[in-house]
Amino acid sequence: MTNRTRKSANGAVAAVSALTICALALGARVPEGWYLAGSKPASYEAGTDEQAEYNAHPSAYLKSKEIVTDGFGTLMQNFSAEKYLGKRVRFSAFVKSEHVEDWAGLWMRVDKGSELVSLDNMQDRAIKGTTEWKAYEVVLDVPPDATGISFGVLLARTGAVWLNSVKFEMVDASIPVTGRPSREEPTNLDFEKQADIR
């Protein structure tokens, strides 16, 4: 994955407010309570797939409508953080994929007003290619001054993903937060370690 694609995906997920406006304008047919967004939402479609049943429930899907050379789409929702202030929360689901050329993953972010507080989009453990149903999760802390939480499934470039058995719950401190932790001090000042570029 190129740095440009990585920056595009991370930056666009971070701009949830702007994406919401784009999604509402599209009027996409998605499951109630969810909406389609992303850096190129018009290149994707989302809905409910009763043929892709899992755990006795139909699945939601997100797939590209065309060959997408850059950018991403996401099926997502957002809500107030008020009930979860000072808590650790987990967003989990079963996901399967088909022909994911770049990467896909669950994601969750916590905001304080327009400021991003924390984000995990599974990019460091991404879903790629064609996979069967598998459980995934993202876990974040919600600070006492947080205002909003957003989560969803993200698909970069071309492919399809299905989502099932979605859960959002508070967990105790024994469950570790996921993603790349923020650093408390500088690192690799002598450039001896090489970055893992995907």
What's the total number of strands? 9
CATH topology: Jelly Rolls
- Which percent range describes the beta-strand content? over 45%
Categorize the overall geometry.
globular
| Arithmetic mean pLDDT | 86
Order of helices and strands: HHEEEEEEEEE
| Tally of discrete structural domains | 1
Per CATH, the superfamily is Galactose-binding domain-like
- CATH class, named Mainly Beta
- Low-confidence spans: 14-28
Largest sheet, in brief, is:
9 strands, antiparallel
CATH architecture descriptor: Sandwich
User: What's the total helix number?
Assistant: 2
Task: Give structural notes.
With 198 residues, the protein is mainly beta. It has one domain: Jelly Rolls. It has 2 helices and 9 strands, in the order H-H-E-E-E-E-E-E-E-E-E. Strands 1, 2, 3, 4, 5, 6, 7, 8 and 9 form a 9-stranded antiparallel beta sheet that branches. About 8% of the residues have low confidence.
Gist of the model:
It is built from 2 helices and 9 strands. Strands 1, 2, 3, 4, 5, 6, 7, 8 and 9 form a 9-stranded antiparallel β-sheet that branches.
Task: Give the key terms.
single chain, 198 residues, mainly beta, Jelly Rolls, 9 strands
What's the arrangement of secondary structure elements?
Elements: H1 3-14, H2 16-26, E1 35-38, E2 44-54, E3 57-64, E4 72-80, E5 88-112, E6 115-120, E7 127-141, E8 148-156, E9 160-171
Antiparallel strand pairs: 1-4, 2-3, 3-9, 4-8, 5-6, 5-7, 5-8, 5-9
